[in-house]
Amino acid sequence: MKKITESEYIKATTRIEELLKFVNDETPEDNPNLQELIVLSDLVESYENEHFPIGTPTLKEVIELRMFERKLKQKDLAELLDTKPARISEYLNGKRDITMEIARALYKKLNIDSDIILQG
């Protein structure tokens, strides 16, 4: 796939915004606007993957996200994981490594992917 420069990236994103006014789910696949949108989208995606990569979130980030999603405070999370609030604070601040028991609880009770749990 052709690589684009930053100025080409900016032009492509601007053109994508324009094309989205004319293209929707009902647009036929042979429509020139849709074809252009697909090509530009692929170029922009490639540029963004190279220049703005999104890495795997840390365990702390995922735990904090789950706490936010479920409106949990550290005290609530400690209760859910059957540990002490101070221990949760130590885990989140990197002062203590998680135990296998807590790792299992994070996986089962918060649905955190095992790859994220084991990355640390």
What does this structure look like?
- With 120 residues, this protein is mainly α.
- 63% of the residues lie in helices and 0% in strands.
- The chain has two domains: 6-51, no CATH class; 59-118, 434 Repressor (Amino-terminal Domain).
- It is built from seven helices and no strands.
- Helix 4 crosses helix 5.
- The protein is elongated, with a radius of gyration of 22 Å.
- The chain starts with 5 loop residues before the first helix and ends with a helix.
- The mean pLDDT is 93.
Q: Strand percentage, roughly? A: under 5%
* Count of helix runs: 7
Multimeric organization: single chain
CA radius of gyration is 22 Å
CATH topology of the largest domain, by name, is: 434 Repressor (Amino-terminal Domain)
**Number of structural domains:** 2
Helix-and-strand structural type: mainly alpha
Count of strand segments: 0
List keywords for this structure.
434 Repressor (Amino-terminal Domain); mainly alpha
Secondary structure blueprint with pairings:
Elements: H1 6-19, H2 32-51, H3 59-69, H4 74-80, H5 85-92, H6 100-110, H7 114-118
Nutshell version of this structure?
The chain contains 7 helices and no strands. It is mostly helical and 120 residues long.
